[in-house]
Amino acid sequence: MARPTQRITESQQAMLSYIQDYILTNGRPPTFRDIQRGANISSLSMVSHYLDILREAGEIEFNESSSRGVWVKSLPKPGDFVRVPMCGVITCDGEHGVPTPDADALRNPEDWIPVARSLVGNAKLEDLYALRARGDSMIDAMINDGDLVIMRRNFDYKDGGLYAVMLSDRNETTLKRVFKDGKKFKLKPENPRLEPFWVDARSAQLQGRVVCVVRAM
Amino acid sequence: MARPTQRITESQQAMLSYIQDYILTNGRPPTFRDIQRGANISSLSMVSHYLDILREAGEIEFNESSSRGVWVKSLPKPGDFVRVPMCGVITCDGEHGVPTPDADALRNPEDWIPVARSLVGNAKLEDLYALRARGDSMIDAMINDGDLVIMRRNFDYKDGGLYAVMLSDRNETTLKRVFKDGKKFKLKPENPRLEPFWVDARSAQLQGRVVCVVRAM
DNA sequence: TATTATACCGAACTGATGTTCTTTGTCAAT
DNA sequence: ATTGACAAAGAACATCAGTTCGGTATAATA
User: Which of A142, B111, B189, B209 has the fewest beta carbons under 10 Å from its own?
Assistant: First the structure.
């Protein structure tokens, strides 16, 4: 990425910071007069002039002749993210190991988790939900206590993906890496120190695909 | 969370969708006239009226008497996120196992990683950087090949946190959970199946703290 | 049919907002 | 001192944008 060809002055830098703070605080860009007041610029024409310089320096972009048209390039845009409903907990007991949330839980979640759009691919928003891992029962899937697991319903099956697998004969749902082999599934724990095993495709249902895992520390 | 007390009509829903799309596309809210044109509303006063209804229904919020003051509540705001510079790779060889990026790498990164602000706590933006894990050398820290590790310089030491630890006698830097015990560090692999071990505090340097780990699948 | 209430349209209004232009101030070279 | 080049201030302007309001159409009610 190219560095600014033009050095910017201290007051221009201060103005840039103000615009950035304004966007972060208000969620939308400021007007020229907001900038003038907030960054203590002496006149509107100076605001306009500084904006030209900041644009040349590659720090901002803006739509001319349109209100609140300025944006700081280093800031993410709303379209870079999605919000995913938090719908419950992955526990180690089989019955509710990996819950499938109902419509109500999806619409009225306990919480909303912001996730970078680049992490969830082309998934439809309404197919995504988040679960919190509890205990170390998912350690074979390299998922730790407290991890956030973003799941996707209505996935396309992709060999080798990590899925919530319901094993009907064991009455148990866990996360495993899945490979299809004729009428059998090969279920491979994510931890390479553990051995894979096979189950009959009829006794295994793929309830959702893991889209990403997030661990706050 | 309270459900909408008022059912919204189809055209109101269409208007809501238009506003949402506008924000996602343009990064800022639309004007009333944008909405009128884009969502095919017959008059400006109808736009205003529908906005009142959508606000009552809890779908939007807006600043009155201010241009482009409407926001769709289900959309994240720019302030919900930060962008972290991508500064290299964690490999299994000791020397460059967990690199500490220089100023230039921080300012001109290969890439920018969007991260939810709630994940990075109160860290200063300039202290954060991202590394990509390569190989399974970090598996003891529950970090997988391809994982994104968000690191923080200038951290406050917190007992039991995950740190990039430089072991000078081994000439090796790895990620371990660290507990202080007098003049010794207790280094505990994240994987509970592995045993912790002790090192002298003088031969171990904490280079950075792991703030969060993100795994795309 | 007459009445009332409600939804809706469109124009006009008022303040907000980006742009332009003239004037003023500063500084260096002549 | 004079001039020219440049930066900066402030007013004026044209358009943008949210609000208001009188009027019309539609539907329900008596």
Answer: B111
